[in-house]
Amino acid sequence: MPPLSNNVERGSALLFPIRCLAAIGRLFIAFLAGIGRIARFGITILLRGALPPYYPGRFFHEFFEIGWNSLPVVALTAVFTGSALAQQVYAAASRFSAQSTVPAAVVIGMVRELGPVLVGLMVVGRVTSAIAAELGAMRVTEQIDAMETLHTDPYRYLLAPRLYAATLALPFLVMLANVIGIFGGYLLSISKLGFNPENYLKVTREFLKAEDVHMALVKSTVFGFLVALLGCYNGFFATGGAAGVGRSTTRAVVSAFIMILFSNLMITMFFFG
User: How wide is the angle at C-alpha 18 spanned by C-alphas 13 and 20, nearest 5°?
Assistant: First the structure.
């Protein structure tokens, strides 16, 4: 009869993979449950926001805050990215004597990928964190509870204007960022890389297609929705005082980053899969 210790060790070795799978399963189920709660929360905002009373003043205020006030950082990011992209493409293309591909690579790279993604990430850092912090502070100081006591629906007054404003503002920001980024690549190419201005613009127009613009609009609309939704969700359900507000803000930013990158992959695969 084998020693008892050997049987225990053998049993523990057999149980270890099962425990690992169980832990992975719990994490996956918790992830799906979280996605379900966020989706239900977003649908509730959309449905309640579609019903009166409406708050157009709140909507235009949020549109100005999200759109106009984000424009400086978006413009700087775009012009630096377009210029750096032109330089990098030129350095890589020079190895194959294919420098003429720089205008096409800049316009396609900015419109399809870099413009929407970088604008989305920059707006996450500026807008999602602000939404989560503001709503979280209102939650822990019971301002939202007081609003409900006064028969003011926070979904209509606080959440819907932010969600609609971000969803509409991001496409405008992305289109402006694409133009500025392409212009940044154009300036660097004609001033440093020796491109002819007319030929550069001609190639840019030839390679910019309608489906590229459509993809940028779809991505930016989805990103705008996620930027506001995750900020609203984490801030609206914040608990635990000032520390809880800080944690909810961090969760909002991290989850928005991840969801923007994931949705960018899914949309790209849908268009080109």
Answer: 95
Cβ-Cβ contacts under 8 Å for 171 (sequence gap 6 or more): 216, 217, 220, 221, 224
* DSSP H helical ranges for the chain: 4-49, 56-63, 71-93, 102-108, 115-123, 129-140, 143-149, 154, 160-191, 197-207, 210-236, 241-272
pTM equals 0.90
Q: What is the number of alpha carbons within 13 Å of residue 89 lying toward its C-beta?
A: 23
pLDDT above 60 (res 230) = yes
Q: What is the pLDDT of residues 81-140, one digit of tens each?
A: 999 999 999 999 988 888 889 999 999 999 999 999 999 999 999 999 999 999 999 999
| CA 257 – CA 81 distance, rounded (Å) | 19
DSSP 16-70: HHHHHHHHHHHHHHHHHHHHHHHHHHHHHHHHHHTSSSP-HHHHHHHHIIIIITT
* Neighbouring C-beta atoms of residue 158, cutoff 10 Å: 25
Contact 174, 75 (CB under 8 A): no
Contact by Cβ (8 Å): 127, 69? no
Which of these, 90, 237, 60, 261, lies nearest to 162 by C-alpha position? Answer: 60
